[in-house]
Amino acid sequence: EGKQSAHDEL
Amino acid sequence: MNVFRLLGDLAHLASIFILVHKMHITRSCRGISFKTQALYVLVFLTRYLDLFWAWISWYNFLMKIFFISSSCYILYLVHYRFRPTYDPSLDTFKVEYLVGPCFVLALIFNYHFDFSEILWTFSIYLEAVAIFPQLFMMQRTGEAETITTHYLAALGVYRALYIPNWIYRYYTEGTVDPIAIVAGIVQTGLYLDFFYVYVTKVLQGQKFELPA
User: How do residues B50-88 score in pLDDT, each as one tens digit?
Assistant: First the structure.
């Protein structure tokens, strides 16, 4: 995956 | 989702409603920086374009649609509907100085060198500094309408609340997002002067005035 957490934030 | 992020998002929603309300009741966009509002459109378009390829939740999806459409609507209000009340001679911050460096920073400091990541990173950096033209304008006029200060307070509180959200996520999920965190701290820091005057003057019932 490699995506950081804030990618699911606004 | 946690309470900090939810309250942050609600503050963000509130800031937009306050701004639109201000323009409608005063029938003017006086004191509002068109440049800052245009930067927010750019921020939302570059960050939320992922709604076409990344599904997160209905909450996330609907909020993205709302932020893109409301920022475009605000730009319409400032640029067309209430244009006669806009004074470009007060809104003189050079946005090139923000957009250029943010783009270069996004090319250098990102998680993956691909199109969607660079857009996301650029939007995070640009959001952090997008308030500059607005603050610069207030610095020039030395004052602001009370309702404009409520707008700015809600907008500042939004990102400030994301900071405890990131701390909470670190402890509950073990996740850390250095780009968002650093930019979010810078963004909140830019509001500190404003918050000081807001709390010591506006919340005490006085007019927002900067010392000469």
Answer: 999 999 999 999 999 999 999 999 999 999 999 999 999
Measured between beta carbons, the chain A residues lying within 8 angstroms of B177 are: 4-7
Q: How far is B198 from chain A (nearest CA, A)?
A: 26
pLDDT in tens, B163-206: 999 999 999 999 999 999 999 999 999 999 999 999 999 999 99
Q: How confident is the model at residue B211 (pLDDT cuts 50, 70, 90)?
A: confident
Name the DSSP class of A8: G
Tell me if B180 and A10 make a contact (CB, 8 A cut-off): no
Q: Which residue in chain B is spatially nearest to A7 when comparing CA positions?
A: B120
- The CA distance from B123 to B118, in Å, is 8
